[in-house]
Amino acid sequence: MKKVLFYLISMLFVATSCVDTEEYEDTPKGNFEALWHIIDEHYCFFDYKQHEYGLDWQNIYNIYNVRAESNLNDEQLFEVLTSMLGELRDGHVNLSTAFDYGRYWKWHEDYPTNFSDTLQRRYLGTDYRIASGLTYRILDDNIGYVYYSSFNNAIGESNLDEVLQYLAFCNGLIFDVRGNGGGDLTNAEKLAARFCNEKTLVGYMQHKTGKGHNDFSSMEEQYIEPSSRIRWQKPVAVLTNREVYSAANEFVKYMKCMPTVKVVGDRTGGGAGLPLTSTLPNGWVVRFSACPMYDRQRQHTEFGIEPDYQVGLSTEDFVKGEDSMIEFARKLLVE
User: Fold this and answer.
1) Taking a C-beta distance cutoff of 8 angstroms, is the pair 183, 247 a contact?
2) pTM of the prediction?
């Protein structure tokens, strides 16, 4: 994590010092030019997305340049700029203004939710436990169930000790991160460390070293070090859906490297670039993916991670009040 933070701080310096938005006028055309060049010089997935769906950033410039006319008001300019950013198909790319927040959410909006809080309440009941950001209980077949809704919710080492100690006599553990859109990467690392017994290579990352689309450092290893505190030794099923993104996507990447863990559910949403921000001449703030991260096979996870077992919620099970994914995981853990 120290390497990640170092690169993040380094890239923040690059993003705020190398893109001189003062050279662009605070006009619709000037803000368009500033935004296009910020992304052109610092975005990290151009080659990958050109390969995946034919993204041509220079052609995007030609298309949207003619729309950035001098007589546009703020709302019209916002529409043009957010539409241009949408061409990147990246949930980490956003445009913040005082009146709206430009975002790309098709990475999960175009797919089944595969999660129901109504069904979840049937499993949790009313006497479940809460330890900071974790909700947990023991199911009636002696399977532990833990739900983590957001990596923005802090978890302490003592929280994890208490949860794992309480579930210690369970036959297996379901760790549910469905709907988790990410947050603090240190929480993902801290949590994954409770499921490994030796230093484990979980992936790689790079950072930009120049303005060219291919100006990157060499790949640096990402490792998870085993926790010195209570660690889980029994089978684990991690439940995923398309809304698993960013730090939650990284967590799934880490957990797939652990020998006792299987991932059950849908492909995750992705989001494998550490995001940074920069400011346009008019004060609007753009966020973008700057540092790419890969799995331990050096493959991109920007568009998600496949589960070990593809399972979704079925209508038939829903009518019966059953969560198909939880039920599949329960059977998997006792095989």
Assistant:
1) yes
2) 0.92
